[in-house]
Amino acid sequence: MEHLGSGDSIGRIPELNWLRKTIIQRALTRGDYVLSGGVRSDYYIDKFRLFADPHILRRITRMFTPIVTEVAPDLICGTELGGVIIATALSQMTNIPMIVVRKESKSYGAFPDEFVEGPYEPYQSVLLLEDIVSSGREVLAAKARLEELNLRVTPCAVVSRGLAPVRSLIQFSLPRGRTKTDN
Questions:
Q1: What does the alpha-carbon distance between residue 166 and residue 34 come to, in Å, rounded to a whole number?
Q2: Radius of gyration in angstroms for the set of CA atoms belonging to the chain, rounded to a whole number
């Protein structure tokens, strides 16, 4: 369990411990679940139980400060849906403009068939935020869509379940068959 960016992760241990404890207390359920990538898991993290609390959301958002300093992005980008919540909070906190990347292009409005919402210029640096990644398939597809627009992209997630090549605030995994935890 560590911040996967450069910098002093030792000083961040209390925040990372807080995040892990908060996930367990507020957002973790045990059962038999199919995750977005089709993988089965005996636990599920309901990120909306975290993001719905403004104090928790603000504290998680502050944990991205070292990454923003390191990447120095021109834009913050959120993936649909959970990444948009984090990106919005981080954009407001840092005053860095925000864009959104969709899972599917929309088929209506002024710009049908586009995946990206919001203004951007080619060659801008983008910090792409995701909430929870398992395989990383969705966030890596979003990264590819942004790179097709000639944007320089650094993907990052709040939580990685340990299977994705995406850096995150914490790695989170539980051994199978632990005592049932309900929220």
A1: 21
A2: 16
pTM recorded for the entire structure: 0.86
Q: Which residue in 119, 122, 116, 114 sits closest to 152, CA to CA?
A: 122
**What separation in angstroms does the CA of 19 have from each of 1, 5, 79?**
10, 17, 21
List the structure tokens of 104: 């599917």
Q: What is the pLDDT of residues 63-120, one digit of tens each?
A: 999 999 999 999 999 998 899 999 999 999 999 999 999 988 777 766 667 899 999 9
In order, the DSSP letters of 52-64 are TSHHHHHHHHHTT
The structure tokens 């995946």 sit at 115
Domain 10-171 in CATH 3.40.50.2020? yes
Q: Are 26 and 183 in contact (CB under 8 A)?
A: yes
